[in-house]
Amino acid sequence: MKQRPAIIGVTGGSGSGKTSVTNAIYEHFKGHSILVLEQDYYYKDQSDLPFEERLKTNYDHPLAFDNDLLIEHIEKLLKYEAIEKPVYDYTIHTRSENTIHVEPKDVIILEGILVLEDERLRDLMDIKLYVDTDADLRIIRRMVRDIEDRGRTIQSVIDQYVNVVRPMHNQFIEPTKRYADVIIPEGGQNHVAIDLVVTKIQTILEQKSIL
Ligand SMILES: Nc1ncnc2c1ncn2[C@@H]1O[C@H](COP(=O)(O)OP(=O)(O)O)[C@@H](O)[C@H]1O
Ligand SMILES: O=c1ccn([C@@H]2O[C@H](COP(=O)(O)O)[C@@H](O)[C@H]2O)c(=O)[nH]1
């Protein structure tokens, strides 16, 4: 009998390559029933705050996320019910008014900086991955990405990294490595690690009579 969907957790610091690893796994199973849930889309709604106030929010702290809503949505997907996924706009630091209708699938990839920090989320996962990339590469990647895609200046990326991202990474993200089943150095270009993970996911899906 087909069991509940499988949940793959993918975490790591900002700029570590979580999205690249997620995309590589997604590409492998593309013909199958698979979806991606980004924890970033579940940042708390801040539309009631003025833009200047939103700039002061600590986006690397566990309390920045609406994990209650995220868990509510995962529980629906586990029952094969559809959800309305929120959409987050990094340029204005809040949710947009739109949502994305997401149909349930057999495999859910849950990706985000703090998905292993919440025990409730960990307990839902069939496999937990930590993408481990050195801090110098992460800041370089983040610098390029935040300027090109998220409307930031060099100085704002540096200030946010030094004052918030780095200390929060050390306090909250790095310690979750201990919960990972697999640690992937360097992220999406690590084809050996991706192949091993894909093989393991296939086994889990066969055990669940999904594949
Ligand atoms: N192995 C790599 N080599 C070079 N650039 C990379 C590599 N992996 C990711 N990137 C780039 O770094 C940036 C951050 O990667 P991403 O996968 O989005 O990380 P995360 O989701 O962990 O923040 C992206 O612009 C991506 O294209
Ligand atoms: O409004 C926001 C929301 C988030 N951030 C930063 O984003 C990263 C997480 O995204 P990754 O794709 O994992 O890099 C987090 O470190 C926050 O600092 C933001 O700047 N503004």
Automatic annotation (TrEMBL):
InterPro entries: P-loop_NTPase, PRK/URK, Uridine_kinase, Uridine_kinase-like. Belongs to the uridine kinase family. Its EC number is 2.7.1.48. Its main location: cytoplasm. Coiled coil: none annotated. The keyword Nucleus does not apply. Gene3D superfamilies: P-loop containing nucleotide triphosphate hydrolases (3.40.50.300). Residues 7-192 form the Phosphoribulokinase/uridine kinase domain. This is Uridine kinase. It catalyses: cytidine + ATP = CMP + ADP + H(+); uridine + ATP = UMP + ADP + H(+). It comes from the Bacteria. One of its GO terms (molecular function) is uridine kinase activity. Pathway: Pyrimidine metabolism; UMP biosynthesis via salvage pathway; UMP from uridine: step 1/1; Pyrimidine metabolism; CTP biosynthesis via salvage pathway; CTP from cytidine: step 1/3. Keywords: ATP-binding, Cytoplasm, Kinase, Nucleotide-binding, Transferase. It is an enzyme of class 2 (transferase). It is found in: Cytoplasm. ATP binds at residues 12-19. SUPFAM superfamilies: P-loop containing nucleoside triphosphate hydrolases.
